[in-house]
Write a structure and sequence with these properties.
single chain, mainly alpha
Length: 170
């Protein structure tokens, strides 16, 4: 499949780079030294760096706006970073409880809490507020440019929880 058939050059290139970043991030995470590394208090950008590398969210941000929908690149490109942020960190928020129950403490929330010397709950609350702010900025900006429909469908799809009757427990 040729992604340049579905996206213009800039989005297609960014999708490719995001894919390479994801592979690099997974390699970083899988290195034995990384699993045992203690975060340095001065490395305040480390959790974000690793999250951006391992998230692949930049690709998903561009996936939202295909050529077929005919959105003007200028109508949404300024919001790609907020969309990427939303995608990376909403995932962390939604998976935090499950990871905490499983005893996983190498995730973004725990790492950021350790580096910023805040509690996990304060960090969770802080990230929640940041995610809501990114969502609001993106929604408002894309309403102005007329590129909001693909974004709304995508974001609502991520956050929509099916009724219990639709969930198979088997």
């Amino acid at each position: 499949m040729d992604m340049y058939h579905f996206w213009d050059t800039i989005p297609a290139n960014c999708i490719t780079v995001s894919g390479l970043d994801f592979v690099t991030g997974r390699i970083i995470e899988d290195e034995l030294a990384m699993r045992d590394m203690k975060p340095c208090a001065m490395a305040t950008s480390w959790p974000n760096f690793l999250r951006v590398k391992t998230g692949g969210a930049a690709a998903f941000a561009f996936f939202i706006f295909t050529k077929e929908q005919n959105p003007d690149l200028y109508a949404y490109i300024q919001m790609i970073e907020d969309i990427r942020f939303f995608l990376d960190y909403v995932n962390d928020l939604l998976s935090f409880y499950k990871e905490a129950l499983a005893g996983e403490t190498t995730n973004y929330i725990y790492t950021r809490a350790r580096i910023t010397q805040k509690s996990e709950m304060d960090t969770l609350r802080e990230v929640s507020n940041e995610v809501l702010a990114a969502y609001s900025r993106t929604t408002e900006a894309l309403e102005i440019t007329g590129a909001s429909m693909p974004w709304k469908l995508f974001a609502n799809g991520i956050l929509q929880v099916p009724p219990l009757s639709d969930i198979s427990l088997c």
